[in-house]
Design a protein that fits this description.
Elements: H1 3-15, E1 36-42, E2 47-52, E3 59-65, E4 75-76, E5 84-87, E6 98-106, E7 109-112, E8 116-118, E9 132-135, E10 140-143, E11 152-158, E12 168-169, E13 177-180, E14 191-199, E15 202-205, E16 209-211, E17 221-225, E18 232-236, E19 244-250, E20 260-264, E21 268-271, E22 278-288, E23 291-292, E24 299-303, E25 308-316, H2 333-346, E26 351-355, E27 371-377, E28 380-385, E29 389-400, E30 405-414, E31 420-427, H3 434-454, E32 461-466, H4 485-492, H5 498-501, E33 504-506, E34 528-532, E35 537-543, E36 547-548, E37 551-552, E38 563-569
Parallel strand pairs: 25-26, 31-32, 33-35
Antiparallel strand pairs: 1-2, 2-5, 3-4, 3-6, 6-7, 6-8, 9-10, 10-13, 11-12, 11-14, 14-15, 14-16, 17-18, 18-21, 19-20, 19-22, 22-23, 22-24, 25-38, 26-28, 27-28, 29-30, 30-31, 32-34, 35-38, 36-37
Length: 572
């Protein structure tokens, strides 16, 4: 019922006297007076009726009617001396909600007031529900469901759940949508909205609904290793609305293994102590509170290893005593083993390739504490320092099965620089002459091609061993048609001899095959070689000789001198 209608009814009720307003008794002198000052205090579901005491009345009773002249009363209070009554659990009716008549009693006599109409108080609207925030980069559109008894709405936008101060407020409107623009990220949750429903009786607010602005995509990123360190510097394009960034590393492109995440506030990061020589995949995304942006596409990045200094030696041990003869007077291996071990350890090499070192009877590893056997086959034993290197894999190459010529190889990783490389231990066909040279040529080609298949990542390779060939093979006066076959094949493949490219050479004139004779042969003829890939820099080439004056010291450890190369293997 409207306020105007209520005023009209009040005037009508105050100006009209109903015929039943007063009922007398046979004895007028004992009839109480009607109650006066009747007041109704109504809420949305209750009504409290109060009045002034009536002359001659000893008790009262209140009749509540839903329409005029309703009989019996819709609600009737008990007789009481109290001058007020409260009715509860009331609900609006059509027209005037209720009429009230107060009866005064004295014995059986009674008097009644004029019938007085009233309406229950209108309820404030219910709280809006179904609030939805549709967020874009710089704005939000808020919608909600209709609230019961709401006349219109407005929306308050705040930056904190603990404040009622609106940074923006929508105009009051009957429509159930509001849009706010010009938004930027704030600390924590960016914004909160509360929708208010209004009517003449009051306002009711919804629950707070927080939201964060969406995070934009990252257009580009770079990763660069700081030279000479294990640091990398990552940079990426700033992302719209990002308060922080998550940089993530993984060890596979699908980013499911070895994951490490870093949270930073700027679009850059410096990471330390990453493992050198390792391939990573990384991605980055922006963060705005609980809102996470889209990851960039995982990008492959290799943490380049540092160049590493490698000292490698090749040493033919004659461990099966094939070189021992009455003419050279060499001792048996059981006697020579300790001499050879002392010489090998004295080379300072971290990698030692030995030939004619049968595992069962030579057992040269017992002379090399701190070394492990990287690979062995057919009297070729390849040892490496476990303090300097870790073995990754190894293998055997058949050079000529009929001639029983083989090579062994091992892939190592420097424990400090993390640089990986391969070392080969080969022993080619012996004896001079064109026929043997051709066999050595075929064996060298097989060595290079088979190792290439075993090395798909093209790590640098060091080829060490007894190649049974030198420049004297090409002495036509002695060996018509002869040639240095390994040198020819390696040169064609772009793989130089350390002897030829070494920055310095030490004892280079001493032949590597000492033949267990004095005086020493000094023609720079070396059957023992160390060939290296072109990317490897040779710092020094050295023939290790044990001398007594200008002669070889006796007894001979073997009929070969160790050949040593100090090289720098590039990082990768």
């Amino acid at each position: 019922m409207t306020a105007v209608s209520r005023r009209v009814l009040a005037i009508l009720f105050s100006s009209c006297v109903l015929s039943s307003a007063f009922v007398g008794t046979a004895d007028a002198a004992t009839t109480p007076s009607p109650a006066t000052g009747v007041r109704v205090s109504a809420t949305a579901s209750t009504a409290t009726i109060s009045w002034k005491p009536a002359a001659g009345a000893v008790s009262y009773r209140v009749c509540l009617q839903e329409y005029a002249d309703q009989s019996p009363c819709a609600r009737l209070s008990s007789r009481s001396t109290a001058t007020s009554v409260t009715f509860r659990s009331l609900a609006p009716t059509s027209g005037t909600d209720f009429y009230v008549v107060v009866h005064s009693y004295r014995g059986t006599a009674r008097a009644a007031t004029f019938r007085q109409g009233f309406n229950l108080a209108s309820a404030a609207p219910s709280a809006p529900t179904g609030v939805v925030n549709t967020v874009s980069t710089r704005s939000v559109k808020t919608t909600w469901d209709a609230a019961t008894d709401a006349k219109d709405y407005d929306v308050c936008l705040t930056t904190s759940r603990d404040t009622t101060t609106c940074v923006q407020r929508s105009p009051r409107s009957a429509t159930r949508t509001a849009t706010f623009s010009g938004l930027v990220p704030t600390s924590s949750t960016d914004y909160y909205v509360r929708v208010y429903a209004h009517n003449a009786s009051g306002s009711t607010g919804s629950a707070l609904h927080g939201f964060n602005l969406p995070v934009g995509t990252i257009a580009s990123s770079t990763m660069v290793r700081e030279s000479g360190t294990s640091k990398v510097r990552a940079r990426w394009a700033a992302s719209v609305n990002a308060e922080q960034y998550e940089l993530q590393f993984g060890t596979n492109p699908s980013m499911t293994t070895g994951l490490k995440s870093y949270i930073v506030t700027n679009p850059s990061a410096t990471l330390t102590r990453l493992t050198l020589g390792t391939t990573f995949h990384y991605r980055v995304r922006g963060l705005n509170g609980v809102v996470k942006g889209t990851w960039t596409t995982p990008t492959k990045f290799r943490m380049a290893s540092d160049p590493t200094n490698v000292v490698v030696a090749t040493y033919n041990l004659c461990g099966q005593d094939k070189c021992v003869s009455k003419s050279n007077g060499m001792k048996k291996w059981s006697t020579r083993k300790a001499y050879a071990g002392r010489i090998a350890r004295g080379t300072g090499a971290g990698i030692i390739a030995t030939q004619e070192s049968h595992d069962k009877d030579t057992r040269f590893g017992t002379e090399l504490p701190g070394y492990a056997l990287g690979e062995y086959y057919s009297a070729k034993s390849l040892f490496y320092s476990t303090a300097k290197y870790e073995k990754l894999r190894s293998g055997i190459i058949t050079l000529n099965s009929t001639e029983r010529k083989y090579a062994v190889w091992v892939q190592l990783r420097d424990r400090t620089t993390r640089t990986m490389f391969l070392v080969v231990d080969a022993h080619l066909q012996p004896y001079k002459g064109r026929t043997k040279d051709r066999m050595r040529e075929a064996q060298t080609k097989k060595l290079i091609s088979d190792l290439a298949r075993a090395n798909p990542n093209k790590y640098p390779v060091i080829y060490a061993g007894d190649f049974n060939s030198n420049k004297s093979n090409a002495d036509q006066s002695r060996y018509p048609g002869g040639y240095d076959a390994p040198l020819k094949v390696f040169t064609a493949a772009g793989i130089p001899d350390a002897f030829d490219v070494g920055r310095t050479k030490v004892n280079a004139t001493w032949n590597s095959a000492n033949q267990a004779i004095n005086p020493p042969l000094r023609h720079s003829d070396h059957v023992d070689h160390i060939y290296v890939d072109a990317a490897i820099k040779v710092v020094q080439f050295k023939v290790i000789v044990s001398l007594s004056g200008s002669s070889y010291a006796k007894p001979f450890a073997t009929d070969h001198n160790p050949v040593r190369a100090t090289v720098v293997v590039p990082g990768h």
